[in-house]
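ERR on first pass: missing label on line 2. Operator R.T. fixed the label and resubmitted. Corrected input:
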Amino acid sequence: MWRPVTNMREGFNRVPIEVRVNGKLYERTVEPRMLLVELIREELDLTGTHVGCDTTYCGACTVLMNGAAVKSCTMFAFQAHNAEISTVEGLAHGDELHPIQKAFADNHGLQCGYCTPGFLMSTVQLLSRKPHPTEKEIRKAIAGNTCRCTGYQNILKAIRAAANATAGSAVPR
Amino acid sequence: MLRRLRRFRIGTAKQGLASAVARPTRKQENRKTVYPNAFRYYRPATLEEASSILAELGEDAKALAGGQSLIPLMKLRLSAPSSLVDLNFIPGLAYIERRNGSLHLGAMARHADIENSAAASKIPILHDCAAGIADVQVRNRGTIGGSVAEADPSGDWGAVLLTLDTEVHTIGPNGARTIALPDFITDAYTSVLAPGELVNEITVKAPPKSSGGSFVAFKRCAPVYASASAAVGVTLGDRDTCKDARIILGCVGLTSIRAAEAEAALRGQKLTPKAIEAAAEAAMAAADPQADMRGSAGYKRVLVRALVKRAIDIAARRARGEHVEASHEYAGRI
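pass 2 clean. output:
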């Protein structure tokens, strides 16, 4: 997986990276200071991942890296080298919504929708690891996501419904 | 339309308008949306290599571990290193193992790894801390080595690890050394690490029998630093008396503060509400908080008293073998 870098003493001004996003392999050469969220939005045109606070607070930029939720505004693109990234675009199959998305829609788990991609990805991590989460586990799992419409009750409701809908079935990462 | 809106997001509204009219190329757009200063990137294969690159480049270069403090600082340009040496691709640095009565934590063990580690959870205070640092996303990235090396007075690990016998193992241009944690952190954001010297392991000695520890931190919400925290370790002797105690206060001084008088108030005593109250009062006097957006100095002192009381109670119950859940406290957690 890891490949040694030849021009070690000089370092990189541009870094070659290979990253799999929603199952598709991308090869890019990026500036070291490019953030992961910019790679996703600007280079790969996957604009479902949002930039909210840009200060590691709000979680609107949450994506999964190798199955773990991360704030993509607080990672450099080069850190995703050789990693599998999942974004909100990878959840639905064509017109068929992912069970978690459906639960958010059915339970009014979104108002303006700006924070929703982040909440969805945090929920994916939660349910892929704990298919039957307790109320406490649900609340802890979304503590890093902020909804400025403050629709938290319905978000909690949606996650409970999603847990029931996906229980026992595989949750795609 | 979305694309146009995206242009408006960058720069001031006026700049956004100008760029929408001038239709800049994607490349120009990107340059505006990148926040950190430009830097050179190094991806060493071993810690020794990382150390020698850092020593060669000097103070302008920084090591990148989890990046959950460094990257926000770089985005605000409060930190603008000329080079970053990435430790994330060095294999074999994220282990969590129990060997010879000690817990060995690789420097790149992430908070979430420690939270989910059965070996680490045998020392409950480590779980208290690991499970409550910031939020899920930050815990998935942040590392214990990075946290200890940063020596942030509001960081959580410093206070917790000081209640245990903790050693910091480092590798540097002058070879390896082992430093006891109390000697490692000297001031706010300052440790004894020499240029090019890197933490490679944190070793925690398993506490003796009839010991219990707990960490209680209060924060306003999950992603922020704690307003104040208390880390307590107690060892019980005959007839439920307190044989030994360590009480460390976090976020209320330039470094974590060891409240020696509070410890003395417990040593040799039965852990009655009165003794605990006396220790909490002494801890409150030892705190040296600064007023900031998290609260006034007076408020933080009162907070310290309450947190210490709670932490001693949980630590004592754990020392008696009770299973008690504890971690950071904040609104919204139930």
